[in-house]
Write a structure and sequence with these properties.
The chain is of the alpha/beta class. It folds into 3 domains: 27-197, 3-Layer(aba) Sandwich (Rossmann fold), CATH 3.40.50.970; 216-366, TPP-binding domain (Rossmann fold, 3-Layer(aba) Sandwich), CATH 3.40.50.1220; 384-573, Rossmann fold. The protein is 40% helix and 16% strand. The protein is built from 24 helices and 19 strands. Strands 3-2-4-5-7-6 form a 6-stranded parallel beta sheet, sandwiched between helices. It has a 6-stranded parallel beta sheet with strand order 15-14-16-17-19-18, with helices on both faces. Strands 10-9-11-12-13 form a 5-stranded parallel beta sheet, with helices on both faces. Strand 6 (151-154), helix 8 and strand 7 form a beta-alpha-beta unit. Helix 2 runs parallel beside helix 8 (161-172), helix 4 crosses helix 18 (443-453) and helix 16 crosses helix 23. The longest helix has 22 residues, at 361-382. Residues 1-16 have a biased composition (Polar residues). Belongs to the TPP enzyme family. Its cofactor is thiamine diphosphate; Mg(2+).
Amino acid sequence: MTAQMAQTVSESNAVANPTEPEPKAATISGGHLVAKALKAEGIDVIFTLCGGHIIDIYDGCVDEGIAVVDVRHEQVAAHAADGYARMTGKPGCAVVTAGPGTTDAVTGVANAFRAESPMLLIGGQGALNQHKMGSLQDLPHVDMMTPITKFAATVPHTARVADMVSMAFRECYNGAPGPSFLEIPRDILDNSVPVDSATVPEAGRYRGSTKSIGDPAAVEALADLLARAEKPVVLLGTQVWTSRGSDAAIEFVRKNSIPAFMNGSARGTLPPGDPHHFHLSRRYGFNNADLILIVGTPFDFRMGYGRRLPKGATVVQIDMDYRTVGKNRDIDLGLVGDPGAILAAVTQASSGRVQKAGDRKAWFNELRAEEDAAYQKRLPKQLSDANPIHPLRLAHEINEFLTEDSIYIGDGGDIVTFSGGVVQPKSPGHWMDPGPLGTIGVGIPFVMAAKYARPDKEVVALFGDGAFSLTGWDFETLVRFKLPFVGVVGNNSSMNQIRYGQEAKYGHDRGRIGNTLGDVKYDEFAKMLGGYGEEVRDPKDIGPAMQRARESGLPSLINVWVDPDAYAPGTMNQTMYK
């Protein structure tokens, strides 16, 4: 054998019988794919309560730098994800285990659904190879979640995990925003697949802009209506803030010389004292306007299903959801799209043809006179030194306490109804309430979300004592994560909004059935959990107590004993049931 032949045989043997194994392909688990998809969406925190089905997601979040805030009840996790979305403009995310973990979160998802808040709930599930065998905590989660989400699905394979997370986020923004739900079986999360086989959408490349102005002809038509109107008004609703259209709304109101009312999360779009800001004269304004523009607010129970708007006025509705426009009441013009983008387009179209501010001076003066009369009528109760404390005095003290940087959160029935007429945030995005589902118990999780998302902001929360009781144990979570806030409990030892209706319907003797609570010292509860607490029985002590809570740097509860026989006008009118 020649030397050349020997070299050829040697090379051939080296190929056929390699001495070193081929390198293994890199793999990734389902939980880590979840974390990568969350990171691509810009999620920096998940709210969760642990369970064996979901722990690989935690491991992925650690690697991706996503914070894990663990709470004491899954309802809190879902509410916090909702609140985080409202506060940041990014979707929130809650992660819960299967079975009771997911069912505990249903209320939070339902609240986000009615409030049009984008969030993703990820729920665990038994392994696919145990499907229909009766595995631990197995329930038909997708079937339960479908009616209260914009998208609900099971992830069928580990390689699809990140892809389906991005799909769920995309569906959150289909029309008006809302929640999505993904069920991920345990073996799908725990299994690993080659990295090359996994679909991992790139950040910013799996959904498009939602800033549509709809039909340009409708924009021109609204500009014409504004130019001709003598007594226009606009109601700015929650979608103005959801779309981050506050600046466009402010410019629209001022350049088009329109009196503005605000509700929901749009409160604070115009600060108190702005000449275009009106608050207490809404019914008068609607009854006397010739053009009413409703922006981002459905004709639901809060609007009397549209029946509170006079038949003679021209009514225009702007909404992100086509199905909402013209629902429950006929309209003269409907515009579907992003409220901020539409208002900006109308302002541009109105340039040069809108009436000057002076042309509507009489209309502004008329509304301002009505506004001032309503304020003066209520003022004696706001300044009342009565004991027990009148709820309007409590609301007045809170309003005086707020700064430019104070985010206000209302959680309750009658006590928060009182505050709605008095407390006025001073900046856009500084008001949070449950929304149209009327869920009580959102306060502590909303505080958690707001303070986590905006640590630079002060958070002030007003609770009814019944509302606080539902999720109050997560006050400890705020202490544990060092999330200070100023909390006030308006304590009347009652579910007073319901109590009023019972007494009106069944008489005084049966007015206390099923709605009376114990006299709980919530200030002591706060101290027990490591926070700051004070009790207040004299109205002049409310402000100083809140100031001490602010200075404590701790989560706090000021327990204010309020008059149980004082009812808010909305409660006495039972408007929520009409």
